[in-house]
Write a structure and sequence with these properties.
The protein is α/β, with parallel strands linked by helices. It is built from eleven helices and 14 strands.
């Protein structure tokens, strides 16, 4: 549905904000853009509906290069790619109903059509009871729901969300994420989310672009991000994995001991694969680090272990275990 090719953004002060960005978003995907502050996330989001025109490169929507559209067509384009800003941008003098109705009023739609559409979207985002309330009377979650409803009122093909949970408490954050998932499933709507919160990526995204200093450090399925970039992700977004690496590697210098990193994905995550294979080859296992998480619809697990064998079968153990897990890396 959306394809970004060789995208660059250079400001007048010669600050090269986006550098040769390439990725694709398919129909119905929830797509995450993540990175630390200053990585270029919001700048990239603003280029996708041409609020910020790129310096070079192409953005294809259904195979049409939208960077070539004139001002007349730009208005219609923005109906297809709607954006919800980080700070909601609700008009304080308008109630919830009127804030959501604003795009339809600009299009000079019939009053009855406006009422029908707004009432329907209010039901979808569970805000019917707040239709006459003003922004000052709303909670953070209710303001976000209002902004999302306004973004959806013209039935866009893609919904862009800029840090939709950054100002919300954990409970409200979960409700907003549930709403985004519901909208995605009910309308098969492609959604692109900019966030600096790794938990948002884990819980709802199908694919992710990881930006670093304006460049794409990773693009692909969420679980592959953790397989390929786990150590870097932990250092940047969480904390370093708490392992005495020097001790682990000292042990692994012996021929009979190996240091392994194992990744489980999907249905095998909760199976006793390690226990079964270690018993088969009479291998002793020392778990140094382990975790299991849920990335949207599938569990994902990581283990870092020392394995020891005096019977010369340690390589056979590693080979069979590798065939039963998502990935296995011999660290030393």
């Amino acid at each position: 549905m959306l394809k970004v090719k060789d995208l660059n953004l250079v400001y007048e002060n010669k600050n090269h904000v986006l550098k040769d960005i390439n990725f694709e978003v398919k129909n119905g995907e929830i797509f995450g853009i993540i990175g630390l502050s200053g990585a270029g996330k919001s700048s990239l989001l603003r280029t996708l509906n041409l609020l910020q025109r790129p310096t070079s490169g192409n953005i294809f929507l259904d195979e049409i290069d939208i960077t070539t559209v004139d001002k007349k067509d730009l208005r219609n384009l923005r109906k297809k790619i709607s954006i919800v800003f980080q700070h909601f941008n609700l008009l304080s003098t308008r109630n919830v109903f009127d804030n959501i109705a604003l795009p339809l009023e600009i299009e000079k739609k019939d009053i009855k059509e406006i009422e029908k559409k707004v009432d329907k979207i209010l039901e979808e985002v569970n805000l019917s009871h707040k239709k006459s309330s003003y922004p000052s009377q709303l909670s953070g979650g209710e303001k976000q729901r209002t902004a999302i409803a306004r973004g959806m009122i013209n039935n866009p093909e893609i919904l862009l969300l800029d840090e939709p949970t950054s100002a919300l408490d954990p409970q409200t954050t979960q409700k907003i994420l549930d709403l985004i998932l519901d909208i995605n499933k009910r309308f098969n709507l492609s959604i692109i989310i900019v966030t600096h919160e790794m938990d948002v990526i884990k819980k709802i995204c199908d694919k992710v672009v990881y930006l670093k200093n304006g460049s794409v450090e990773f693009f692909g399925p969420v679980h592959e991000l953790f397989v390929e970039k786990e150590n870097e992700i932990f250092k940047e977004f969480y904390q370093e994995i708490n392992i005495d690496w020097s001790r682990a590697k000292q042990l692994s210098s012996k021929e009979t001991i190996k240091l392994l990193k194992i990744v489980f994905w999907g249905k095998h995550t909760h199976e006793a694969v390690l226990d079964e294979v270690s018993k088969k080859y009479d291998v002793k296992v020392n778990i140094l680090y382990g975790k299991i998480e849920h990335l949207k619809d599938n569990p994902y697990g990581t283990l870092i272990i020392n394995v020891e064998s005096e019977n010369g079968k340690i390589n056979d153990f590693i080979k069979e275990l590798d065939s039963k897990v998502y990935s296995l890396e011999v660290l030393q």
